[in-house]
């Protein structure tokens, strides 16, 4: 079972990269490209929306949200295009989405600022 989970995790990582590559392919429909960029950007981001140190919830996005997003995108991309990009993903190095990292860091920063502002108004103001 342990090897099965490792293989599944490797396939998800490969498919995340393949989806990223397929998003720039002209044979991919526009709606699949839009969803592919969102899912791949989040999957390849070095920062998680829910940090891994938060018990249970930290790994929820890695274990459920990302794989479901990848499965949805793979179903929208034509099979021959996906097969081509899966092969390319095996041969290439996995990219890192710095833009997605900046967006997620911005969301966290805005959240901290909002909580600080609300705390200030509630306790001091």
From TrEMBL:
It comes from the Bacteria. GO terms for cellular component: endomembrane system. It is found in: Endomembrane system. The keyword Transmembrane helix applies. It is a multi-pass membrane protein. The chain crosses the membrane at residues 99-120. The keyword Zinc does not apply. Residues 32-68 form the DUF1232 domain. Keywords: Membrane, Transmembrane, Transmembrane helix. This is DUF1232 domain-containing protein. The lineage of its organism: Bacteria, Pseudomonadati, Pseudomonadota, Alphaproteobacteria, Hyphomicrobiales.
């Amino acid at each position: 079972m342990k090897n099965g989970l490792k293989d599944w995790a490797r396939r998800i990582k490969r498919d995340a990269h393949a989806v990223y590559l397929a998003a720039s392919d002209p044979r991919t429909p526009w709606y699949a490209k839009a969803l592919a960029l969102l899912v791949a950007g989040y999957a390849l981001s070095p920062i998680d929306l829910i940090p891994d140190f938060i018990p249970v919830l930290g790994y929820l996005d890695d274990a459920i949200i990302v794989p479901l997003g990848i499965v949805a995108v793979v179903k929208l991309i034509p099979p021959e295009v996906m097969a081509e990009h899966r092969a390319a993903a095996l041969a290439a190095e996995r990219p890192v989405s710095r833009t997605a990292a900046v967006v997620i860091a911005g969301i966290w920063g805005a959240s901290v600022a909002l909580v600080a502002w609300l705390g200030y108004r509630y306790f001091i103001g």
